[in-house]
Amino acid sequence: MIIEIDQKSGFCFGVRNAIGKAEETLDSGGMLYSLGHIVHNESEVERLRQIGLITIGHDEFLKLKDCTVLIRAHGEPPAMYEYARQNNITLIDATCPVVLKLQQRVKKAAETMRQENGQVVIFGHQGHAEVTGLVGQTSNEAIIIDHPEDYKKLDLSRPVEIFSQTTKSVDDFRKLTENIRTHSPASRVEAHDTICRQVSNRVPHLHEFATRFDLVVFVGGKQSSNAQVLFDVCKNQNRQSYFVSSPDELNSEWFTGIETVGICGATSTPQWLMEKVAERIKQF
Length: 284
Ligand code: SF4
Hints:
4-stranded parallel beta sheet, Cobalt-precorrin-4 Transmethylase, domain 1, alpha/beta, flat, binds iron/sulfur cluster, 3 domains, Rossmann fold
């Protein structure tokens, strides 16, 4: 059986940067908390836990003081920075530069929309950390829309400025924008495609990758929205595509009669995990 790991899968630079900062801080001794999971991958979170990274939720963060906390690549709303400042918490800020720039643009748009009686729209998942960080830039005034059909939530007689969570699908963002433009011909609609190309460029690549093999194993975290989007791309191209989060989830029966296997993953999938999956498949 020929097994190939996709060279373009694996951590994006934002995630690599955050993990590098965590490792660097832990190497120099001392305690480090991560506000939320540093990456949407249970296996990598566990690896970092074993070298001392303590993951906490927002409720726990809001009880801390006099310590060091890492802000992951998704970023945080201004209220978290303010809490840290008031409680002598040193922040290791690993907000991805792409997200940071997006936060600044959303903040500016909120000021403009306030003056024009308009609406800031974030096309993203309610409750996703990046989206919470973006909405926080608007004093929680932004409206979150998760599906292109949900444009009905908006008051289409008023101006609209739309941004996208960095990991949403480009096609869905286009559909949402079209829906809003079609139903609000008289209003000003400004759409900013802020989808990260580290993610969207992988779509055409995986299209091609998934067709080259008899079977595809996609390795990703169960909570990763990016993993879900990219797995769907593989599945649409190759019906023999399987999603696993660890080598233990592989089923030897899938590989009966299979000659070529492609292994790929999300921007949150560590290289070492794809290699472990490949090793396990070789044993079947
Ligand atoms: S997907 Fe893009 S925006 Fe998100 S962390 Fe990676 S590089 Fe940054």
